[in-house]
Amino acid sequence: MSDRSDAPTSVIRLADYRPPAWSVEHVALEFDLGIDRTEVAATLELVRQADEPIRLNGEGLELLSLGVDGRTLAEGEYILADGVLEIAIDAERCTVNTRVAVHPAENTAFEGLYLSGSRDRGFLLTQCEAEGFRHITFFPDRPDVLSRYTVTLRADHDRFPVLLAGGNPDGEGVLADGRHWARFVDPHPKPSYLFAVVAGRLERISHDYTTADGRAVALHIWAEADVIDRCDYAMDSLIRSMQWDERTYGRNYDLDVFHVVATHDFNMGAMENKGLNIFNAKYLLADPDSSTDDEYRHVEAVVAHEYFHNWSGNRVTCRDWFQLSLKEGLTVFREQSFSADMNSAPLKRIEDVALLRRAQFPEDAGPLSHPVRPSQYSEINNFYTATVYEKGSELVRMLAGHLGQEGFRKGMDRYFERHDGQAATIEDFLTALGDANGTDLSPYLAWYGQAGTPRLSAEGRFDAAQRRYRLTLRQRTPATAGQTAKQALPIPVRLSLFDQSGKALPLRLEGEAAAGATERTVVLDSAERGFVFEDVDASPVPSLLRGFSAPVILECDYVPGELAILLRHDPDGFNRWEAGQQLAGLAYDDCRDGNVEGSALRAWTEALTHLFNDKGVDDALLAELLTPPGEIELVERQAERDPDRIRIARQAMLRKLAQRIGAEALRARYAGLRSETTAALDAPSQARRQLKRRVLDLYALIQPGEARELARAQYEQAPGMTDRLAALTTLATLDAHAAEAAIAHFRQRYDGNALALDKWFAMQALLPGADALARVQALEDDQAFMLKNPNRVQSLLGSFARANPTGFHRADGAAYRWLADRLVAVDSLNPQVAARVATAFNGWKRLEPVRREAAHAVVAELASRKDLSRDLTDILARVAL
Ligand code: ARG
Ligand code: ZN
C-alpha cells in the first residue's frame, strides 16, 4: 500500500473549498488490459479557469510518458510529488497526454482497477468513489470536474470476452493476436468517481425496457457463470425501480444501455457508476435456497438505491465530498420511500428507525460523531457512515414532511431542473426546495452542521377547570467530539392526543377557531416552547414524534399504563411499535434493577400477550412488537456499561414475556405457522416465517428441550434459507455444542456458495458469551476463511466485533487484543475494510472500568503505531482521543 501514515496526513476543510483551476471538457481513455499489468493512455482537454498550474492527482501510477499539446515533456518540465502531477503552462486551453501502467492483481485495497476472484478465472473491475480514479490515471480527481468520457478497451479475447464501460456502446472489433476492442461514449458530463470499466468472463441476463419518455434501454445484469441464475430478482427490482422513479419523480433513464455487475470482492454495498453499476454480490444475488427474506429486501433496496443515484448523484452531483449527504441522504430517502411503496410502509419505517438507533445513534454519541455535513476530514472513505446516509435521509424526510408530498415533488423538480449537469451543495438543495414552495428552509441547514442526537423532552399538564392540555417541549443536544456549543434546531413533532379509552382527540391549539385533524405537526424551533390544546375533557395520553418525525431521542416520563394504551390502540403500526419500544425500555429498567414485579415489566408483558392473542394483528408487525430494543441500543440505558449484565436483563425480560404468553400458546402458534412447505416470497409468507422465528425463540427461553426438537425438525425440513438459517441459529444459541452436527451439515451443504458461507460465519460469530472468541478463532482456520475478501472479514471479524457485545467485550480484554492484531493484518491488504471494522472500538470510553482499561490499552497501542494506513490511523486517532 502506498498511503501509510508516515506520509504527512493533511486535513481537508470545507472552509478551504476553491473551484477547480482547470476544467476537463473531454477525456479519452485507452486501456490495454492485463491482470498483472494494464496500461492506460489518457488524453485530457483542459480549459483554464484560474491563474494556476495544472494539477492532476495520481497515486501508485507508473508514469510512462507525459505530453502537452503533442510535445513530450522532459523531466524538469513538470513536478510529480505527494500524489500530484503539476504542469505550469501559459495557454488558456491545452491537451495533456499521459500513459501509465498499473498492476491490478497486486491491488488488494480494491480501489482503482483490481482483480475480482482468482488469477485464472476472475475478472477486472474498477471502484473509483471517492478517490479511486487517481489510482487509474492522472486526473483532477474531484467531483466538481465534470467531463465527457470516451473509453476504449483492448484485451485478449479469450481471457476477457466481455468488455464494459459506462456510456453508450460506440463500436467494437477484432485485433491481431487474439485481441479485441470495444469503445464507449458517455454523452453526459460526469465526475471521475462515476467512471467504471469491467472486463472478463461474465454471463448476463437481459431485458428490453422502454422509459416513460420513450427511450429503448437494454438492461443487462452480469455475473460469473456459477451465479448468473441468481440475478432474476435484481432484474425485477431494477425494472420496478425505473418505473417508480418515472411515476414518483418524473425521472427517466438517460442512456441506451444500463449494466449492472456482481462481484464477490467489493469494499462497500454497491456503486452507482454512470451506466455501469457495480454491486457487492451480497446485494445483487438472490435465490430462495441461499438468501433470506431480509436479503431479498436488501437486494430490492440497494438495486433501487444505485439506480436512483442516476438522478440524485449523477445528473446532479456533489460539489465536494463534504456534500456527500446531498446525494446519499437524498438517495437513501428515495430508496426508503420506494421500499415502503413496494412492501409495508409501517414495517419499513420500523426497520429504518431500528437501524438508525442501532447504528447511527451510537456513532453520534461516541468519539467518531460528526455532522451530516462534516467540516473536515483526513480520509473521506471514513465518512461513508450511518450519519451521512441514515441521519442524512432523516433530514430529507423532515424537509419532505414540511413541504408535503406535492410541495416536495415540486421542490425536487426545481432542484433537478436548476442543477442538472452541475455539482451542487446542500444549500443549493434547500434553496431549490424552498424556492419552488415560496418558503425558506434555511433554518434546517443547522441540522447538517451540528453533530449529536438532540434530546427532546416533553411534559404535559392537564387543567381540568380550563379544559386545557399544555404540552411543554424542550430540546438540548449533548456536546460531541470537537463540537461543544450546540444550537436549537427546528424539530417537527407530529402528535396526537388519545383519551384513556384509546380514542384520538380532534386537536385545537390555543387561538385557533375550530378543531381540526386528530394528528398534526408542531415545530419546536427554540430551546423550549409550550403548546396549549383546548377542549380537552380529561388528562390525555400524548403520542409524540409520530412516524419518528425527527431523528431525536424522546424523553417523556410516561407511566407504563399510558404507553400500554398507545401500544394497544394506536391505529398506526409504526406508532404502536414505537410505544412498545418505549415501554420495553422501561420494562428493561425493571429487569436491570432486579425488579421482577415492576409495573413496566407487567404492563409490557400484558399488553404484548393481549396483542399476541389478538388475531387482528398482522404477523410481521407482531414479530416486530415481540422484539424489544437490542443489546446495543440498551447500552444507552446503563450508567456503567457491562454487556453481560445487559444481556442477562434483556433475556430475563424476554423470559417473562414468554412465561406470560405461556408455553401452550407459543407452541400452538408455532405449530400453526409451521405448515409451510415452499419458500414463497409473498408478504404473508415472509411475515409467517418472521413470526415463527420469534415465537420459537421465545418458546426456547422456557422450554429449551422441546424447542430444540422443533428447531431440529425445522432445520431439516426448511424449504428455504430463511427457515433454515433461523432454525440453525436457534439451535446454536441454545447450545453450540449440541448444534455441531447441524453446523457442519450447513457448512458442507453450502460449500462453494460464498454468500451462504458468509452467513454461516456470521451466525457463529454472533453467538453470545465469553466462548465466542475461541469459536471465532477456530473459524479463522476454516479453509473458506480469508482476510483478503471483505465480505468474509465482515462476516467473521465485523459481526463479532460490532454486533456481539458479550463476545467482543470480554472482561479480560482478550477479544480486544485479538482484534487489534487482525486489524493490522487486514490493514496491510485493505485499509478501507480495516478502518470499518475498527469502528467497533467507538464506544470503549463508556464501558465499565475493567473493560474500559483493557480497551484503552489496546486502542492506545494501536493508535501509536506508525505503519498503518491513513484510513485506519484516522479512525484510531479519533477513537483514542
Ligand atoms: N456511492 C456508493 C453508494 O451508493 C457508496 C460508495 C462508497 N465507496 C467508498 N469507497 N467509500 O452508497
Ligand atoms: Zn449511495
Helix content: 40-55%
| Backbone shape | globular
Instruction: Report the average pLDDT across residues.
Output: 97
Report the radius of gyration as a whole number of Å. 28 Å
Number of E-state strands: 31
Ligands (ions, cofactors included): arginine, zinc ion
**Main sheet specs:** 8 strands, mixed
Q: Going across the major beta sheet, what is the strand order?
A: 6-5-9-3-2-12-15-14
Cofactor: Zn(2+)
InterPro entries: Aminopeptidase_N-like_N, Aminopeptidase_N-like_N_sf, PepN_Ig-like_sf, Peptidase_M1, Peptidase_M1_dom, Peptidase_M1_pepN, Peptidase_M1_pepN_C, Peptidase_M1_pepN_C_sf
Enzyme class: hydrolase
Pfam family, one: DUF3458
Please tell me about this protein's structure.
The chain is an alpha+beta fold and 881 residues long. The strands form 8 sheets. An 8-stranded mixed sheet has the order 6-5-9-3-2-12-15-14, with no helix packed on it. Strands 17-18-19-21-20 form a 5-stranded mixed sheet, with helices on one face. A hairpin with a 4-residue loop joins β20 and β21. α4 packs across α5. The relative contact order is 0.07. The model has no long low-confidence stretch (mean pLDDT 97). Zinc ion binds at residues 305, 309, 328, 331.
Structure summarized in a few sentences:
This protein has 26 helices and 31 strands. The longest helix is centred in the middle third of the chain and has 34 residues, at 386-419.
Considering the chains and any ligands shown, give keywords for the structure:
globular; Aminopeptidase N; hydrolase; single chain; binds zinc ion; 881 residues; alpha+beta; Aminopeptidase_N-like_N; aminopeptidase; binds arginine; EC 3.4.11.2; 5-stranded mixed beta sheet
